[in-house]
Amino acid sequence: MKIGNIELKGTPLFLAPMEDVTYKSFRWMCKKYGADVMYTEFVSSEALVRDIERQKQKMTLFDFDRPVAIQIYGHNIDSMVRAAQVAEEAGPDFIDINFGCPMKKIIRHGAGSALLKDLPKMQTMAAEIVKAVNVPVTAKTRLGWTEGNKPIMEAAERLQDAGIAALAIHGRTREQLYTGKANWDLIGEVKNNPRITMPIIGNGDINSAQKAKQFLDETGVDALMIGRGAIGRPWLFKEVKHYFETGEVLPFPTVAEVIEVLLEQIRLNLEWKDNERAGILMLRRHFAKYFPGVPNFREIKIRLLRANTSEEVHEILDEIVDNYGNYQLDYTNVSLK
What we know:
Blueprint: E1 2-3, E2 6-7, E3 13-15, H1 24-32, E4 38-39, E5 43-44, H2 45-49, H3 53-57, E6 68-73, H4 77-89, E7 94-99, H5 104-107, H6 119-132, E8 137-144, H7 152-161, E9 167-173, H8 184-191, E10 200-203, H9 209-219, E11 223-226, H10 236-246, H11 255-272, H12 276-281, H13 284-287, H14 298-306, H15 310-324
Parallel strand pairs: 3-11, 4-6, 5-6, 6-7, 7-8, 8-9, 9-10, 10-11
Antiparallel strand pairs: 1-2
Helix pairs in contact: 1-11, 4-6, 6-7, 9-10, 11-15
């Protein structure tokens, strides 16, 4: 598939943009294990226009990222256009528009998935951004607002008409948030609409290599996007690619193997952040996901989540290796919530 002049071979695997998740160290780990395309955390257009430093820092890109997109969100078309121009100055390979975030703090102002209730505005916003920048522009959205309001087909056609270079579709409505099952049938219908020529990227509920293959075979999408399934499991990209190439399922790692991955992520975070405590706090969401199903683990996990220094974290990880190092993890029934 192609995004503008970006050529991606086979069935590319995209790391979904996620707030407080897809920062440098996690992107590095996912790239190491086979993710083909990166996204930054999503960035507020209003914050970029006001030159707020924390939001601008989210757009810091690294050589390993490429190809990489900066994702922006907002409700005001003029602000979104200006934000896209600011984002372009950071040097991404393409810019992505967030038409899918379901969170209240985003939709209450009419941004994210709220734009699924105003498809003409969504189309105009996309068209104006496409005209304003010199890199390809893509979009990510959901099926619709509610179970009874799923305008994804019309949205896809309008976005293609606006010049969007590729569309990622999360197979849920805004009403679902992250509950229930993703509806890949509708994603497949968009992909197989003869009027749709832009690449379609499928997203939702990919938490195993077998599911990835199933969704791909059922829909024929051009690429797959993995989000929550990779939190605490960045090697999922490797598992998917290995299964695609060989038909073999890789064994799940042991606790000791997982800790080696986690130690690398910690090291990268501490190198990246000047403030040690900030570097550790950013990892708490990942800590919570790294050890599914380990017996009698609750107390140790709580201590890990409360640790504030690198020394504390390393002491706890040493203890985990001593007590559980040979335990083989099982991700079969891990919830993506």
